[in-house]
Design a protein that fits this description.
about 0% strand; 11 helices; homodimer; Tetracycline Repressor, domain 2; Arc Repressor Mutant, subunit A; DNA-binding; mainly alpha
DNA sequence: GTCTATATTCAGATAGAC
DNA sequence: GTCTATCTGAATATAGAC
């Protein structure tokens, strides 16, 4: 538990804020770089496989110093997952709405693929947590991802009522979009390997976008 | 290194075979149940997260006894991955061929989804290995999965030449089929959670099959 | 906030008796 | 083939000095 010295902690209101501001900012910045590196290593090695020692070493700090900011490995892990889910929602929320299904689906796929391209580690940490049976993040999932999905399903159903799209099982349609787009983060090493290159580039993501978009729009086309 | 005693190891030809047969059969059976349990635990906890102690305990044998059959954790892991890749190919090989694209795609998706339903752990171990950057199974992947993919891509291109299917980037089409179908193994806990149940059942897989098949066939329809 | 030192637990692997 | 005993290394976490 971090405790500021009496000199600052005793002061209240504006004065305290003025003094604490730079301290807090430094702390926030450090916490942020720790989370970024932890995300990378949890993604590659998993919760048990990653070690606080390695993470600290990569950052050039001591393991004990890391434990000063995050009292335990598990809390660091939870924080990483929380950040991922937050940015996920930030990027995806409200994309499926309005009255233009085609534009919505195009944007949705584009946003998800961009997330895969820009934040592959976040997606992988999430995938590993899911495969483990969501032992540490089930409630957060239920509370935050489920409402978002249900809202999207409802929107699709309204579109189907209006005859704008075919009537499919939209839950599984969403699963399929998630799977296809997230795979370009989670399975990137395999895909790159099979394309004969070291890693996926912008063109690969663009080609993926074209194919996946075509699939979804074609499937949604009213009979 | 296992060494049979002199009495049997000295004998050669048919006599030795007759004596060794039951021994070997017992060994093969034991190796098989060890692999099955290891697959389950590697799937759930990952390579580093799974422990030989836990695997042995679940099987009711000692860790040392387990190490008698597999000299190291890594060799056990490699064996598990090898088995997965083998059964994968056994089920999928040659499905994309002939002159009926629609039937081929339907069968391919059906077979992949069946694998996800029947062998989810195998798929998950594979996914974890990929996310780790394929540190222990890259050559095997390259040597065995890549030729299979290239053959399938060539078949699709022949179909496109004949005007039977639209001309897409078939590599990414295959990635998308893999992703959508494997997700019903790898992401099963998440999907089940979002469908409000403990685990996916036959009906879920059937609904997934309908949606995914529709996507792929619609995308492949010539313009 | 950062460091040194240490407690504790647990994992993989080997040796050798039976 | 299976067991007991043991070696070795690594990891999380805590205590306390500065």
């Amino acid at each position: 538990m971090p405790k500021r010295n009496l000199t600052t902690s005793k002061k209240a209101g504006a004065a305290a804020k003025r003094i604490d501001a730079p301290l807090r900012a430094a702390r926030v910045a450090k916490v942020s770089v720790i989370c970024a590196e932890a995300e990378r290593q949890f993604a590659q090695y998993g919760f048990e496989g990653a070690s606080l020692d390695m993470i600290a070493q990569t950052l050039g700090i001591s393991r004990q110093n890391l434990l000063y900011y995050f009292p335990s490995k598990e809390l660091l892990y939870i924080q990483v997952l929380d950040n991922v889910l937050n940015e996920w929602r930030l990027r995806m929320d409200g994309l499926v709405s309005g009255s233009n299904p085609e534009a919505a689906v195009r944007d949705y796929i584009r946003a998800k693929l961009r997330f895969s391209a820009e934040r592959p580690a976040g997606s992988q940490v999430f995938a590993r947590e899911v495969m483990a049976g969501m032992p540490r993040f089930r409630e957060a999932m239920m509370a935050r991802a489920m409402p978002a999905m249900n809202a999207d399903v409802k929107t699709f159903e309204r579109w189907a009522d209006a005859g704008l799209v075919a009537r499919l099982d939209f839950r599984h349609l969403l699963f399929s979009i998630w799977a296809s787009t997230q795979a370009y983060a989670d399975m990137a090493p395999q895909f790159a390997c099979m394309l004969g290159k070291a890693s996926l580039d912008e063109e690969d993501f663009e080609r993926a976008r074209v194919v996946i978009t075509r699939q979804m729009l074609a499937a949604l086309k009213p009979d």
